[in-house]
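We were asked to recover a plausible sequence for a given structure. The inputs and outputs are reproduced exactly as logged, with field labels preserved.

PROBLEM: sequence recovery
POSITIONS: 292
GIVEN STRUCTURE:
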């Protein structure tokens, strides 16, 4: 029996659609033993899955990065049948996908010829047109590994820093590596200074979020200057605005970061608000096949 909670009605698991209660894996699955796998999260809106191709492309790229031989095109074909079985066709929903290296005797080295374990589920999920939340965030040391660009299911470092934010009564944790802010525990972070948008480069110390990519592209299209560089902790008070981005977060204004307050909770920075409005307008069209 599953504990009470928002579990999906149906789960696609290794070629079958089953109930959540029957969605079980071996204790020798490498995802369970090692966190050896990749995941992806998408949202379905009224106009289709938001930037579906971009998410699936990233899933394939990450599988290649860690050497799991699986074609995401096979997974893509299972999404619609799952949504039908879940009663979520054309309904706002969150779609979670995970691929692990599969079941094998416990050894650190990669097993050969082991089929991947593939799982998808969907749950109802309604995003606001614009995220009206003004977030408060703490600063936490970024003690994670040096391949944060891989969307690994091994998220203990992210979980621990996010829990620290929850215990502090805040919304998120901004991570600091060698004095420089990298990203949030489950978001990317942007700053604004003199109408220029600044964000950490997409290197091995951050996950290059799909929403992050969209914002970079929007800045180019809107002729908003954008610089990819890390902001130091000392620079936080010199910035004019700051915001977090993510698939479900969208764009969330930051009212307070660490000890510095950017503005009162009811206010939004002008660049933040402009980008929020343009991102919201993208949800009115079908972006499912757009590449980034």
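RECOVERED SEQUENCE:
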């Amino acid at each position: 029996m599953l504990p009470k909670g928002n579990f999906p009605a149906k789960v696609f698991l290794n070629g079958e659609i089953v109930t959540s209660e029957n969605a079980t894996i071996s204790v020798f699955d490498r995802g369970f033993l090692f966190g050896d796998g990749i995941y992806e999260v998408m949202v379905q809106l009224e106009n289709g899955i938001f930037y579906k191709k971009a998410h699936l492309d990233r899933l394939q790229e990450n599988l290649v990065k860690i050497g799991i031989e699986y074609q995401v095109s096979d997974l893509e074909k299972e999404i619609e049948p799952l949504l039908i079985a879940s009663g979520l066709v054309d309904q706002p929903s969150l779609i979670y996908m995970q691929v692990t290296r599969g079941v094998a005797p416990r050894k650190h080295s990669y097993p050969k010829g082991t089929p991947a374990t593939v799982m998808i589920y969907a749950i109802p999920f309604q995003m606001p047109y614009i995220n009206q939340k003004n977030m408060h965030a703490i600063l936490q040391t970024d003690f994670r590994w040096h391949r944060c660009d891989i969307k690994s299911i091994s998220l203990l470092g992210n979980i621990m820093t996010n829990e620290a934010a929850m215990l502090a009564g805040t919304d998120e944790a901004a991570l600091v590596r060698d004095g420089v802010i990298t990203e949030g525990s489950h978001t990317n972070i942007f700053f604004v200074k003199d109408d220029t948008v600044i964000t950490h480069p997409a290197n091995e110390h951050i996950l290059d979020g799909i929403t992050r990519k969209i914002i970079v592209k929007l800045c180019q299209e809107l002729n908003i200057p954008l610089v990819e560089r890390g902001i130091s902790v000392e620079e936080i008070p010199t910035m004019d605005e700051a915001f977090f981005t993510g698939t479900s977060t969208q764009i969330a204004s930051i009212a307070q970061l660490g000890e510095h307050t950017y503005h009162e909770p009811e206010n939004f920075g002008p660049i933040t608000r402009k980008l929020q409005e343009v991102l919201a307008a993208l949800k009115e069209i079908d972006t499912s096949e757009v590449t980034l």
